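Hi all, long-time lurker, first post. I run a small reading group and we've been trying to get comfortable going from sequence to structure in the token notation. Rather than ask abstract questions, I figured I'd post a concrete chain and ask someone more experienced to write out its structure so we can walk through it together at our next meeting. Sequence below, copied exactly:
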Amino acid sequence: MQLQRVEARRATGAHALIDSLKRHGVRHIFGYPGGAILPIYDELYRAEAEGGIQHILVRHEQGASHAADGYARATGQVGVCFGTSGPGATNLVTGIATAHMDSIPMVIVTGQVPRAAIGTDAFQETDIFGITLPIIKHSYVVRQPEDMSRIVAEAFHLAITGRPGPVLIDIPKDVGLEEFDYIPVAPGDFTLRGYRPTVKGNPRQIDQAITLIREAARPLMYVGGGAIAAGAHEELKELAEHFSLPVTTTLMGKGAFDENHPLSVGMLGMHGTAYANFSVSECDLLIAIGARFDDRVTGKLDEFASHAKVIHIDIDPAEVGKNRAPEVPIVGDVRQVLMHLLRKVKEERIPAQTSTTQAWRDRIDRWRQDYPLLVPIYEDTVSPQSVIAELTKQAPHAYYTTDVGQHQMWAAQFLKNGPRQWISSAGLGTMGFGLPAAMGAKVALPDEEVICISGDGSFQMNLQELGTLAQYGINVKTVILNNGWQGMVRQWQEAFYGERYSSSNMEVGMPDVELLSQAYGLKGMKVRRPEEVSEAIATMLAHQGPVVLEIYVHKTENCYPMIAPGKNNAQMIGIPDRPSAPSHDVIECPSCGAVNTSSNTFCPKCGSKL
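-- Answer (accepted) --
Happy to help. Here is the structure in token form:
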């Protein structure tokens, strides 16, 4: 491609930054000004007056980082946030770590003290470059304004390519003020040495994967957030349907595969469906696609999918084999690899062979019937699961964000989301994420319904962003499931700490959310009785503007199924004991030492009789 060269003109570093952001398609920036970043905000003032870009003034920098994160998750585009030096920069850290853990593309711009003052402990100086090194994909300190446009171009490329992630640009105040002969760098018009993500999978390994899929009697697709990032939804569906492969997703993978599809077994892991966890315990082939074998998924790692051969497809070579050594490792972009695999299947006219796996799918269907997700009904109090079920009924196509805790897991169990319509902090588990993330998603997609599901503990972490909703009229609906506790903490204290509820009750000091919302100029609502839930949700959805709906739910409701610490996926608590469940007894193979369940007659690893 022939790139047009632009004549140099005098401009400041701040102008180079804002102009470069606009050239990369940035329409919204979430941020909070301060002394060191004022030159950039002065230039942003001019840019907003010209149109085409909007700054959203948050009430706390953590809100800015989570809003940029939600923006990115909802669209697949790079989210952008600003913060000043010192506390402004450090307030962004939790949001940066959240995005890093979940591989979310973001560009974070921080102000810094002038170059001459760096290292002198100047007012509001912190080494944000050093602070964020473990939680960032890449970092820059702009030493010369001439480097600004190139650095922005590199940052956007790094954030969105390969395994996505957050990139930091730290800008000293005088760099923003300094004039120079500005020549813009267009997107992609640079050479980034040493950065060459592997996109296409190895053909020989793809052939091996096809062979294993054809040979498997009990295959299972295990799909993570990498499939969302790659936009591989159609390819996943085609592969699953061709070979009749049951599909389970992680918390990050929700929406990658239609959960209403008969091949879907829902989410697996600590609070996954019983039938997903039984399936992964009994499968003989696990096809891991854009997943990282996280501890909340695997339970006791050495017993995770212990009967299965593993195909692992991921863009990040560091993830392949990190926690589980695969028989077939494939490094590459998930969508590209699946496209190659499906093309090979068509070219060689490889038959579906669905009859081979029919008995396996029948067995999963029996588990599905025996261990369904249940919605308890109480006469005088609201069950939290019933609220999620009602939201699913009334707003099935909404974009949902969540905070972290029991409400997050109930939402993951009962919502049936489309691609990118599930937005939740998975890896870091960040309370306070839901409201600002919903704000970012709604700014990105103003015509879509965006609903935040929160808990009374999580909501208080970033409730100040109600002010941002009010200022810009961001039409986010927030539903708070209030049980008066840090619910998941209480559940663990009940189950594993002798019912010693240390510092987990939140009732004293909880604000009246209805009045609080009204104080911000928003509509607030309160529900206490089961018969009020449906009408309240309908009223909330019909209102033209932000709404906060607080629903008082059953105080001691627990989230089940649940895999206890140190147990394998088949050893769940909170499910009935039925004959169709796999055996929980674990035995070692006398020949090779592999871990097996007592339901096996022969070791699947070495073939020896058990």
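A couple of things your group might point at:
The chain is about 35% helix and 15% strand.
Confidence is low (pLDDT under 50) at residues 598-602.
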